[in-house]
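User: Modeling request: complex.
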Amino acid sequence: MPVARTHAIALVGVEGHEVEIEADIQNGLPGLLLIGLPDTALREARDRIRAAIVNSHEQWPQRRITVGLSPASLPKRGSGFDLGIAVAILSAADAIPAAALEGVAFLGELGLDGQIRPVRGVLPAMAAAAASGFRRVAVPHANAAEAALVPGLRVLSANSLRGLLGWLRGEAVGEEADPVQITEGGTEPSLTPLRTGRSTGCRLDLADVLGQPTARRAAEICAAGGHHLSMLGPPGAGKTMLAERIPTVLPGLDRTAALEVTSIHSVAGVLPDGSPLLTEPPFCAPHHTATKAAIVGGGSGMIHPGAASLAHRGCLFLDEAPEFGRDVLDALRQPLESGEVVVARLGTIARFPARFTLVLAANPCPCAKGSGGRAACECSPAERRRYLARLSGPLLDRVDVKVEFLPVSRSELLSDRKFAEPSAKVADRVAAARQRAADRLRDTPWQLNGEIPGSELRGRFRPAPGAFTPLERAIDLGQISARGLHRVLRVAWTLADLAEVSRPTADHTSYALGLWLGVSG
Amino acid sequence: MADKDDLGRLGEQLAAEYLQQAGMRILDRNWRCAEGELDIVAAERRVLVACEVKTRSGLGFGSPLEAISRRKRARLRGLAISWIRAHGVLFDEVRIDVIGLVRDRAGHFTIDHVRGVG
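Assistant: Request completed. Predicted assembly structure:
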């Protein structure tokens, strides 16, 4: 009997790899042998596939079946191979013409009744399929819209194995209760990032944060340049409120970024129903009890992206930052530097992009009563120092903008109402500043001021003459590190972009230095 | 005698006839020893064939071939050795075959012969 071949995609992190499924039927007692590093969920495929084939009114071959997944060295996880294996077995039994399987990648989990169930990570898998030269893919119906985001793919989607087999055999459509639907990839309407507000219903606006003009300005600067922000202040001053409103001043994602963000959310299995492509910058606010694996990604079998990756191209907000485990916070240092998370496991290395804007919020001390010179604080000086020392120096060294929130008086609340600008207005300025930066960085791999490496800040992107003077003094006094200097220069560039001048001057660098040291205001 | 035993006996008869037509010499039928029973012992040139016959009246409980587990195959091999020892004959090779028979509603039998299973 012949050997039949189909193809599927294995995911490692958000990278897809082509997998060839071979099915061989030999004379021998009935049985199914699955080889090629399957994990538990995949080994269970034997029983799922058999039930699905029999319940789709197909003949289960009463012979010894060997199914091999190659490359054998690549660990294969999950249930997405079910469909490819079932089709390969039926093709080996001459139930499907082999020609119909040419150039098709299969992805989908089978139910015992022969239903094709949705799987995670369809978008990155399909992107890998297109890159490997596949022109047609068969996916669960529920994943069709996601698969169709990849241009150049013809997406065949079905709800049941029976429907798909009918199509592969070229049977007349019409009698089938569940015909295959065909969607051409990359034909979805062009992306128009709409400011539709969050799906939560009530629309957030930066103007709600009354009495904190410095903090609002800091949020604008961070949004414009992709800089990291830390906020220190008493409870109720508006730290969380401000953080939640940062996404409202960020521009929508462009196509490349939207596909990256959607891929990560797809692998994590958190894509909302009915919206295959995420076009809004994500906002991720993990609770302070989160573990290291939850923040940077991990897991022993299937490697999952963490909150840092789910916030890629968006905002990662750590409320009550000193309450987070120290190792959790320090694990963020690598993605803050390199913009990606590398999770290494025996035999596999998964890479997840993690280029986020970090926003930290902290109370000044555990009792949180003594901010702004108020005497009500019950904490001893040692206690206060210990509390804030939980945010390690190396982490704070990577935070570009530090602002202190002061308790707001009633008159300030009332008077600020006249000056607080709505998100839409700030978003326009942020977009204009980002555009200036993007124009300047056109021939480079970077898009935002926050991404420019230090060497370039001293070479190609030098500030105006004399702009270094305030910084030289700070270095002499030991106030900033060499890395801090680069961070200050990046923020200075963003300030220049917001002010629409061509190069940062001494005004911009000294203001940026103030933000870095956390003494502005 | 129960129906299923009659069906089994009929199946074994049909299987023996089938093997004879396929050119094998039937040496023994339903040979018993302490460890169990061999349905058919046959010879194909210098090869001893120990054959297990399984007959079913439908596929409601799966195909008859599926009922042959790994343990049963190992036992059949042991029985084949016992048969050789008991009869003092020499063969080049010992092979275990399984024959599955399914009777359909019309009373016709489908025969499925799998060679060399263990």
